[in-house]
């Protein structure tokens, strides 16, 4: 009997500190008008001294565990998407594993930058379907503002911090069963230079800062995201009209609008949080998902598509029956 990964619950966490565009304009040569017009971002949450990615991840995870109504000891797999681990090693996933009091199963980080949650979800889904685990905690968590060069106004206004998580359980697949219907992942390393961090353990022995060719990234995003959504729909014999909700990676409101337009999807079906959270990289999809589930927009039985593109370039989509 084939297995399907069912999503039992979701959760999220945002650092308490909020920084508005006007706050930023006090120390960066920018303005609320410019940021709002180009990106749709109005504010972002930011970690403070001593607040770690693992702290955000753990809080989102506990929130998801409660929402799913499972015993924490049921979890036998943790996959955590992050580009801002607490340390180069061990993985932040193993730290969260210990913090949750788990000593069985296995835990790993996945690095695909803004596609990190997509990649983590697809990785967990594969382990569940091949019976290597039964209950997975999938997290996207970032303290991305730690990678920002506050002298570079073309990047520092775009990002924020946060975490989101989902609980997956392998269940027997039936025609009606909900869960992850498909995942599609892609990468193309030829474009590694247009969105990258200029440091790392083996290159500079420093952490480095985000560097980005914004216009080029924008162009690739709209094309790749529309394509990978169409790929998911075709693989499931569905059309864009069948989708109830798009829960996209939240990079920029103009990318969300451009992708919806290319797909001919009603913009009201797109879950938007970029105005409040900015781009939280691997955390943005589970943060948006959790918001739309908890405020009642996403209901059991709805058809969702999640999609993301990030540095690498990496991109992907997952079709989910909620
Ligand atoms: N505040 C004020 N002015 C700014 C600014 C800021 N924060 N950042 C750049 N500018 C200025 C530039 O210096 C430039 O001025 P100039 O015309 O005098 O040279 C002008 O604004 C236009 O800059 P440009 O880079 O052409 O803007 P843009 O329309 O491409 O918008 C982005 C910039 C970054 C918002 C846009 O390219 C984008 O969203 N790209 C995708 C980024 C992304 O989402 N990356 C993550 C993907 S996971």
TrEMBL record:
The GO biological-process annotations, alphabetized, read as: fatty acid biosynthetic process
Give the Gene Ontology MF terms in alphabetical order.
3-oxoacyl-[acyl-carrier-protein] synthase activity; beta-ketoacyl-acyl-carrier-protein synthase III activity
Give the GO cellular component terms, alphabetically: cytoplasm
Intracellular or extracellular location(s):
Cytoplasm
Entry annotated with the keyword Disulfide bond: no
Which Pfam family is one of this chain's hits? ACP_syn_III
Q: Where are the transmembrane segments?
A: none
- Catalytic residue list: 114, 249, 279
- Could you tell me which PANTHER family the record lists for this protein? 3-OXOACYL-[ACYL-CARRIER-PROTEIN] SYNTHASE, BETA-KETOACYL-[ACYL-CARRIER-PROTEIN] SYNTHASE III, CHLOROPLASTIC
Family affiliation: Belongs to the thiolase-like superfamily. FabH family.
Note the subunit structure: Homodimer.
Purpose of the protein: Catalyzes the condensation reaction of fatty acid synthesis by the addition to an acyl acceptor of two carbons from malonyl-ACP. Catalyzes the first condensation reaction which initiates fatty acid synthesis and may therefore play a role in governing the total rate of fatty acid production. Possesses both acetoacetyl-ACP synthase and acetyl transacylase activities. Its substrate specificity determines the biosynthesis of branched-chain and/or straight-chain of fatty acids.
Q: What's the protein name?
A: Beta-ketoacyl-[acyl-carrier-protein] synthase III
Provide the species name. Terasakiella brassicae
User: What gene is behind this protein?
Assistant: fabH
């Amino acid at each position: 009997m084939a297995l399907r990964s069912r999503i039992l619950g979701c959760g999220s966490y945002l650092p308490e500190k909020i920084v508005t565009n006007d706050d930023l304009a006090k120390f960066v040569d920018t303005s609320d008008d410019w940021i709002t017009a180009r990106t749709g971002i109005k504010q972002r949450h930011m970690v403070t001294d001593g607040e770690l990615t693992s702290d955000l991840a753990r809080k989102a995870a506990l929130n998801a565990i409660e929402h799913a109504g499972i015993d924490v000891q049921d979890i036998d797999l943790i996959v955590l998407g992050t580009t801002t681990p607490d340390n180069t090693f061990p993985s932040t996933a193993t730290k969260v594993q210990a913090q949750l009091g788990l000593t069985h199963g296995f835990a790993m980080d996945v690095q695909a930058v803004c596609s990190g949650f997509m990649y983590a979800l697809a990785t967990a889904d594969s382990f569940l379907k091949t019976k290597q685990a039964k209950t997975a905690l999938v997290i996207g968590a970032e303290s991305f503002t730690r990678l920002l060069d506050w002298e570079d106004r073309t990047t520092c206004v775009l990002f924020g911090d946060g975490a989101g998580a989902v609980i997956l359980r392998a269940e027997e697949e039936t025609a009606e069963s909900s869960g992850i219907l498909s995942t599609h992942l892609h990468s193309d390393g030829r474009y590694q230079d247009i969105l990258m961090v200029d440091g790392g353990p083996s290159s500079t022995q420093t952490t480095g800062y985000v560097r980005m060719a914004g216009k080029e990234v924008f162009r690739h995003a709209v094309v790749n995201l529309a394509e990978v959504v169409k790929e998911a729909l075709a693989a499931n014999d569905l059309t864009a009209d069948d989708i109830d909700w798009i829960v996209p990676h939240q990079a920029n409101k103009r990318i969300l609008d451009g992708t919806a337009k290319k797909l001919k999807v009603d913009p009201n079906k797109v879950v938007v949080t970029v105005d409040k959270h900015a781009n939280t990289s691997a955390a943005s999809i589970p943060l948006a998902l959790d918001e739309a589930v908890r405020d009642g927009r996403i209901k059991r039985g709805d058809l969702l598509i999640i999609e993301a593109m990030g540095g690498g370039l990496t991109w992907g989509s997952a079709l989910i029956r909620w």
